[in-house]
Amino acid sequence: EYINKHPHDYKLKKNNGLRMLWITPLRALTNDIRKAMQSVVDDLGLPWNVGRRTGDTTSAEKAELKKRLPEVLLTTPESLHSMLTQKDYPKFFENLEVVVADEWHELLGTKRGVQLELGLSRLKGLRIPEPDNVPEVRSDNVALGSPKGRELPQLKIWGISATIGNLEQGAEVLLGSDIPKENIKLVRSYLDKKIEIQSVIPDNIEEFSWAGHLGIKLLPKVMEVVAKSKTTLIFTNTRSQSEIWYHAILDNYPQYAGIMAMHHGSLDNELRTWVEQALHNEMLKLVVCTSSLDLGVDFRPVDAVVQIGSPKGVARFMQRAGRSGHHPGATSKA
Asked: Are 265 and 240 in contact (CB under 8 A)?
């Protein structure tokens, strides 16, 4: 659409202001999306920058964002609200045309989802121009409406999900009740994704309690799956459980030292980034992780996923299973 509006000079126009806001529930997702999106932008010949603002963004990087806004910004619901509290934030979003809510099923019905809905409501409110004869309303030196007398670009809102079944309801929650139904478009995919699920259970179930154990006694059977696979992700439901499994594997299978790693939200950003890059480069045989890697991240070498214990829901399990065989025609194994 931008190229159609500027057919003759789109390759020359720089510093165009923030045009697209891409909101994702995971910081790990922003790394992959940023690389992929910058590659597409460069191939199109657009002199655009793809930036990122999450909890991992340093103060220096945030200051640089204020000086020169990227045309595309990847962020999270929390960082969006942080930007909305800054002085003169309407100027930050005055050129915004598109907002994308990635992995909407993960946010839908949660507190973070409500955060996103409130943020979208404020961004849509900025699109309502103030009449010339009405004084501008300010609070703590911050303009609350759009620049007086100026109509900002209409906002297009996209929601992306691979697991939402009730798309109509998902769209209604995301878009709100103020958008006419004729303006809402649903794009469905009818591709069948093949998933193979294998249960790893004790030989004698009666010896185990129904709850409270961490599954460590099944370590030999889990490692059989790992040995047969090229690269495996072992998902746990908590960070402490991922630490327990990681150290149990190192203690019992020292030969995996150097070709296995751990990934969760409490680890340093540099270490998490290294693990993600090592997965892409086929340097790791095994990664023990939490939900920090279960959404949208494309690791081609991963061909098996192990879920320790019961996931929090069917959709969450489907997402995690989909980390293996993450390309068209491949079968996901969990």
From this structure: no
